[in-house]
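User: I'm writing a short methods note and want a consistent example. For TonB-dependent receptor, I'll paste the sequence; you return only the structure tokens, no commentary, since I'll be parsing the reply automatically.
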Amino acid sequence: MRLFYWITAAGTVLAAWGCGPEACAQNTAVLRGTVADSASGRPLGGVSVRLAGRAEATVADELGRFRLAGLPAGTYVVRANGLGLAARQQTVAVAAGQTAALVLRLPTTALALSEVTVAQPHDPNQSLAIISNIDKLLRPVNSAQDLLPLVPGLVIAQHAGGGKAEQIFVRGFDADHGTDFNVSVDGLPVNMVSHAHGQGYADFHFVIPETVDQLRVYKGPYTARFGNFATAGAGEFTTKTRLAQSQVKLEVGQFDTRRAVALVNLLPVRPTGQRPAAAYVAAEYTFTNSYFDAKQDFRRFNGLAKYTGQLSDRTSLMVLGSQFASKWDASGQIPERGVDDGTISRFGSIDPTEGGSTSRTNATAVLTTDLPHNAVLRQQVYYTRYDFNLYSNFTFFLNDPVNGDGIRQTDARNLYGYTGTYSRDLQLGSRTLRAVAGLGTRLDDTHIALRNSVRRVVLDTIRSGQVYEQNINGYLEGTLGLTDRLTLNAALRADYFRFAFREDRAAADSVSGRAGKGRVSPKLNLYYDVNPAVQLFVRSGFGFHSNDARAVVTNVAANILPRAIGYEVGGTFKPVPALVVNAALWALHLQDELVYVGDEGVVESAGRTRRLGFDLSARYQLTRLLFADVDVNLSRGRLIDEPNGANRIPLAPSLTSLGGLTLRAPGGLGASLRYRHIDSRAANEDNSVRAKGYFLLDAIVSYTKSRFQVGASVENLLNVEWNQAQFDTTTRLRNEAVPVSELHFTPGTPFYAKLNASVFF
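Assistant:
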């Protein structure tokens, strides 16, 4: 009930924010319209809409709708274009105080990078939008593990049989499972605060890859919309509003791999003139025993239902529900010495009883309303039920030589939230200020526990209790065209956190408590459009990541909301028509590098850190059919308060690179050869233990016609021996007299071939 009143009050506040009558003159005009596929009539979201010869521009929303307000009366040429779509334009006349409506229909065409312009008028902070839009058309996505690496320069590692969230490497961060990278899907937060296994834990496996439509990438802490965990950056995924076609897909592969996917449209495309509406359902089932000596018995089910419709001329509604469940066995991390002395094989395990299960149920609704005075109010409510059960053994027989050091981590969570934004275009003389006000709250109510276990039988409880954590946030953001070429984006975000932890066991008062902390995060960004082929930017901002609630309430000296300060300079360029390049020199200072120690249920502080880096992304059309892409990310990270020689940030990568070649033939043949590389790097502070780098090749081929598609994919084409997750860990094997500190790793995928076939209807 309290949440309902908060939502009602927030909506009232946002709707009331605006200008007086004198600032809302009726002597300007409005252009409204929709963009649709010329063949099917399907609305096209993400399409750029511009006025020829003028600076005004926007992007069509998920229903294909666009709006350009505050225009002087006159005649305009409205032009719409998008990647893989032929540009179309229409001339329209509009009088003062009136609204003109039009429909632009775009046919599909061969992808041509020469048609790309680099400016992002609707959201200048999304400077990687052009790169992401090209990747959407060219980069193959075959599994949930392929989704996060769509972020340029992001590399993942798995170390629990495929069922647990991946380890994330981005912008010089070993971000663990998401501590410094914010992830969301359709506005639903993916990162979990005060999670049983790791702070910011981002399990992305509840997303069906075939339903993903767009990815918006934001590097650094420069965007006010993101708060917690958005230090290295953020990735916003959105699922499709409507399927191009219904589809059934089957996939089989090595290691007993089987996968089935079904996606079905529920509503036909409505004729022009009727209010658009779309609905579909999707389901996915995956099974594999994976490549380890012990069968992993990995099973996952995903289900999704989504409706998007225009309820009136001014109101649209999106409703989404999804269900995810997974269970698996895991072989865990293994010590190098165990492989070297023949105790186990490279794909063996010290404790074969690791593994677990997890599930997630999501429900969300988004109501978008066009208000008077060219304003838009967007309100979203969401609920997630989440359960997590993981058996691990990181140290083998270090602490208990008889039973071993097996642990069980559990998390049973209810997550509630509201996000509201009020956006409006205001006239400041001859210039337009796009103003956005946002309010939100998120409440995590979860029971988490850490217990000792042997072969999945619990022996005793290390820690168990109820976590209550709420974030209340708000921000103001303004984007102002200072000149026709120079744009200023400035924002101020405020967050307040309330933490509470109540231990279940006796003598709980010593480890229970409450705490609160606020954080203000200003942002300031400048963008300069030299010409349609060159945009330069200078960006700066404050961000933060939160500490675990258990550490906050039991340690009065704990750093509750460590601050991050970032800044960068760079640009997006088209030196030749077929080449798009995005480059940035950046720096990020973190007030406290927090490391969650899962087997002890505590947080360790590594102190202050500094990272300097260079990002480069390039997309090049070699011929009409052949495309090349490359991402190169260099960084140098150091612990500030440690002496030289002992100041490395463990596992922080200094070089990552991804890229490949993609063929798109007009007859339906497609092929891609891709590489992944991460360098060898320090696994501890003094660099005495090194995590091993790798270079891998993957290949994909497909043949697509109007009614079917067949394809094949190969991971690790050259069958390279490589390590995924790697850690410097102190462990003891069963018969060892003393513990040993050395590199422990999860072996990477060997040569892995899969076949797939789809039917469209």
